[in-house]
Task: structure prediction
Amino acid sequence: MAEELEVKELDNVVVRFSGDSGDGMQLAGNIFSTVSATIGNGISTFPDYPADIRAPQGSLTGVSGFQVHIGEGKVYTPGDKCDVLVAMNAAALKTQYKYAKPQATIIIDTDSFGPKDLERALFKTDDYLDELGIDSDRVVSCPITKMVKDCLADSGMDNKSILKCRNMFALGLVCWLFNRDLELVANFLREKFAKKPEIAENNIKVVNAGYDYGHNVHASVPATYRIESKHKIKGRYMDITGNKATAYGLIAAAERAGLKLFLGSYPITPATDILHELSKHKSCGVITVQCEDEISGCASAIGASFAGALAATSTSGPGICLKSEAINLAVIDELPLVIIDVQRGGPSTGLPTKSEQTDLLQVLFGRNGESPMPVIAATSPTNCFDSVYAAAKIALEHLTPVVLLTDAFVANGSAAWKLPSINDLPEIHPHYATPEQKGSYSPYVRDPKNDVRYWAIPGQEGYTHILGGLEKDGDTGAISTNPENHDKMCRLRFEKVARIEVPDVEVMGDADDAELLIVGFGGTFGHLYSAMEELQKKGHKAALAHFNYINPLPKNTAEVLRKYPKVVVAEQNLGQFAAYLRMMIDGFVPYQFDQVKGQPFVVSELVHAFEEIIKINPGTKQAGIKL
Result:
C-alpha cells in the first residue's frame, strides 16, 4: 500500500494543459474546470488554441493550450502563470514553459520526447530540461503513451483511438494531485459520450489509471492539494462559456418577452458556438438559420424582427464589416435586433483564434450616414448572459438594433455560473402599437416619453404600414427627401438612443481618494480588477471604473472621470475607448495602456505600468501618454 502524502489546503491554483491540437487538451481542461465548478470552486479559464486547422504533429505552431485558475472564492482571471504545467510533447514544453511559474510542477509524457520529437520542437540537444533551465526535481516524468496502451490493450480499440485517450491519463494525474472526485469525471464522460458508452468507459478507465499512477508512485511531489470552497452561495451551478451564456441569455429574453427567438448567422470563429448552442433548443421556440453569407444572416434576422420575433445575428469583426449595410437597414427602419460581435484579432483574417478589443470604433461609427446604435460590452463569461439579456431588453423596448461586444477571451473562457430563476430577471415589455392607433397607425409616430416609435406586427388589422431603406416622413411614414425632415429624423434617431437609461458606472476600490483611477471596458475586467487589488496591497490608493455600457455612456461618466488626479484607460487595442471618451467628455486627457497581442493582459505588467504612472509628478501634462 502506498504511503499517504500530506494534503495541503490552497486558496487557489493555476493549471495549464498543453499538447498537439489533436491531443484533447481543451477537453481535459474543460473536464477539470467543470468538476471544480461542480464542487463550488471559483474558476476562470483561457483556451489558447492555434489558428491552423491541423498543424504538423509535434510542430511548434500546432500547440494547443487550456489554462484554468481555480480558487476557494471568486476568481477574476485565468492567472498570469501556472502552478502546474502538463506538456504532452516536446513542442508543448518548448512553447508553454514561459507560462509556468519558476516553482511550477511540470508533467510530461516521456514517450513524446524522442529524438524526432526534439528535432521537430527545434531543441538543440537531448538534454531538453537543461536547455530550458528546468530543475528536474520539479518534473513528473511519466511514460503516458505506454501506460495508456497497456491500460487499453484488451479494449479492442485501434492504436489511433487508444492514443486519443492520453489526455485522460494526464487528467487523472492532475485530479490525484488536487484530490478531485473521479465520480464527477466519470459522470461528465458518460454524459458526453452517451451515444458511445464504450468510449466513455475506456476513457474513465484511463482517468483512473492516471489517478492510480500518481497515488502509487507519489509522482515526485511532496504533497497533494485541496481547494475548499469556504464561501458557497446556495444554488445550482454549472461551468459555462461566454458563448453558451450568450445563447442562454437570448433564450431567457425571448421567454420573458413572450416572443419566438430567431438567430440568423454565418459560421465564423470565435462566434460559431452561439449558433451551435441555439440550434439545440428548438423545444424552447428557438429558430436558427445558417445562412450562405454574413449579410444574409443579418438580413434574415431583420425579416424575423419585422415579423415580430426577438431577432439576433452573431459574428466577429470581419462579419460586422459585411453586415454593416443590413445593420443600417435596421437602424433606419428602427427594428429591434441584437447584433453579437465576438471580437478577434485583426485586421482582415488576422488572428482568428485570439482575442482583442479592436472593433469598438467599428460598431460605434462603422456605417454610412448618422447611424446611432446602443453598444454593450460583456465583462466575463457569466456576464455574457446578463449583457445579452440587457441588449435584448433595450432592443425590444426602444426599437433599435443593439450591439453586444464580447471577445474570444470571454466567449471561449468559462466560469462557475449560478443558474438564475427566469422570474427573477427584469421584465421585458416590447414597445407595441396601442389599440388607440388602430386604423390611423403611422410607423414613425413616437412615444413622447422616450422618442420610441410603436411596433406593429404585419398581419394586424388596422396597422398597415411600409418600412424600407429610404428616408421616411416622420408624420406619414411615406418616402421623403425633404431636407428638414431628414435632419429631424436623424436627430430623433440619435436622441432616442441617447435617452436610453443605463446604470451608472460603479467605482470599485478606493472610490473616495484614489491617486489613480483605472478605466476599462468589456472582457479586461478581471485583469484590471486584479491589478487594482495588487496596487492596494502595495499601499497605493487605486480605483477601477469598468464600463459595460458604451453607448449611451452612463450619466455619471464625466463626473467620475474628472474626480481623480490621474486616470489611465487600459484596453486591448491602440486607444479606441480612450479616443471615444476624449470625444465625449470635454477636456478629458487620460494616460493610456494599450496592447494588441491577441493574448489577455498580464496582471504583473499592468501593476508595473500603473505604478510608473503613480510616480509621475502631478504637475506633468498628461496629454494622452501611452505606456
Notes: The CA atoms of residues 137 and 220 lie 7 Å apart. The longest strand covers residues 100-109. The chain has a mean pLDDT of 93. The chain has 21 helices and 24 strands.
